[in-house]
## 1
Amino acid sequence: MNLHLTNKSVLITGSTSGIGFATAKLFINEGASVIINGRSQKNIDKAIGLILDEFPDANISGVVADFLDKNSISNLIDSIKQVDILINNVGIYKSQSFQETTDTDWTDMLEVNVMSGVRLSRAFLPQMIEKNWGRILFISSECAALVPEDLIAYSTTKAALLSLSRGLAQTTRGTNVTVNAVLPGSTLSEGAENFLQEQSEKTNLSKKEVTDNFFKNVRTSSLLERFISTEELANTIVYLASPLSAATNGAAIKVDGGSIPGII
Ligand SMILES: NC(=O)c1ccc[n+]([C@@H]2O[C@H](COP(=O)([O-])OP(=O)(O)OC[C@H]3O[C@@H](n4cnc5c(N)ncnc54)[C@H](OP(=O)(O)O)[C@@H]3O)[C@@H](O)[C@H]2O)c1
């Protein structure tokens, strides 16, 4: 399938690893020009190096910005002239009880998970409307609907993205710009790999046993009963960012392995 992404310019936040990195690779494979982001030049250089090893002609660059730092975000916006496709992917979480979650934890998660997308959409949506083409995607989470008790603050930010995404979509009426949200389920990013490794060492169980226990005892609603790969997430994200997805606007698309119950 030709996704018609050649020469489209893409900005993906939090993309030196995980879902963002897999998405960057897939966009490059489709001929798009990609700007990746992370908090350090070192990680950006490493990620760009990995992409160039696989795609020597890739049109790839990187911009350092920490979404906890407003100045850093302003610098990022000033340094990028224009984007056709904005993937609001960056997200942080802390597994802890509601009582343990401090004001700082709440504001940090709100800044990185929600305000990053608010600020970038405010900067780039008007030019998409002006150009009469563009895509904005918000990477939410199954947690927006499942709301695990140890992730109440994180889940709240991910639910907020659904309203933000739907609201912005409504401002695109009559244009070829779309705004959608994607709800990933438990995905095998580097963070999840490290978690499995740590649990395996702590419990003397194999990584496979730890994974099986996770789906048996924690993410019990998953129909897939395995972690989703970052590439499986990237497939949906890149499709939704392509001209082929023109009729999908204001939607919340689940890529959750069936973990969110319900028929829509
Ligand atoms: N993995 C899952 O199971 C899962 C499930 C549902 C939803 N999601 C959502 O999917 C998105 C991607 O998840 P992931 O697991 O792939 O993420 P991840 O592996 O935790 O993300 C790491 C990336 O985020 C960047 N990053 C972290 N804090 C940042 C900050 N303050 N400013 C800028 N960049 C920052 C890191 O850059 P550097 O380290 O290079 O600075 C790196 O590129 C997130 O929004 C997450 O909430 C993930």
## 2
Amino acid sequence: MEEVSLSGRVAVVTGAGGGLGRAYALELARRGAAVLVNDTGGTLDGTGQTSAADAVVEEILGLGGRAASNQDSVSTPEGGEAMVAAALDRFGRVDAVVNNAGILRDKSFGKIDWDDFHAVQDVHLRGAAYVSQPAFRAMREQGYGRFVFVSSNAGTFGSFGQASYGSAKAGVIGLAQVVAIEGQRHGILSNVVCPLARTRMTESMLDAPEALSPEHVAPLVAYLASERCRETHQVISAGAGHFARVFTGLGAGWQADPAEVVSAEAVAEHMDRILDSSTYSIPLSAPEELEMLAPYVAARTAAGQAV
Ligand SMILES: NC(=O)c1ccc[n+]([C@@H]2O[C@H](COP(=O)([O-])OP(=O)(O)OC[C@H]3O[C@@H](n4cnc5c(N)ncnc54)[C@H](O)[C@@H]3O)[C@@H](O)[C@H]2O)c1
């Protein structure tokens, strides 16, 4: 098997003071990367600050790796800039960013407090953008880069009580896909991991601590952060050593009579065909979806109907 090496590479891992981020940082360092271990070290709801990142740096140094600690928050543009500047100052370049930092402030939709909602969005969605933009600029200069964004099944499929978290995590996928599209011509790849592991974030929901340990997710992150990775624009679910693609497909659908403006009743009657997912394609950008719709637009234009 060809080795997955990060030798000579520099990685920034946000929220790496514990849980999944710590496992990612250790695995990247074990494979040769110099790692900027970022974490504010707060509680699960994002309050407080501790030196959690320092302990992980000690661990990496103790194993003979290279690492530096950073406590900037991902949740402001200044924090993102400072973090990437710290990696550049310390290690000279930034090759990979793992946007892992996260908090939870779960509440059912009817009870949401907007300060909580915004705080969750600030860390997961805006935070990923604040860290990634300065890194993207540095990667563009060097013609090489790897982004690993972290989403969740709460974002892809929804989860009770997680409107703030789920919407932020779905937004992360949109962000990652645009970065993939804009990064490709600069040698920058961008993919998303939807992890499942027992950490402080999930300990009340998940049993089987060993089967669901973060170490089972870290190999995918190491691959996606490495030079060996060729994929981009992908979303992959990972937990307990099981890995699977998550995708948004476009069904074959139902085409109304091109000579008529369709009625709401006709839409209702054809809902089964509209929702049928036995045949689908997976567009890799918005223009690709438009190309797939082009024959229907052409048929309607030929029939003399306004599009
Ligand atoms: N554990 C799972 O099963 C699971 C499932 C889906 C997604 N995720 C995602 O994986 C990521 C890691 O979660 P985890 O389960 O390891 O939980 P965790 O709470 O152990 O890790 C999150 C880390 O992010 C840090 N952090 C919070 N706000 C920060 C900020 N503003 N700046 C920098 N660091 C900050 C925290 O201090 C913490 O160490 C999160 O993005 C989470 O949403 C986890």
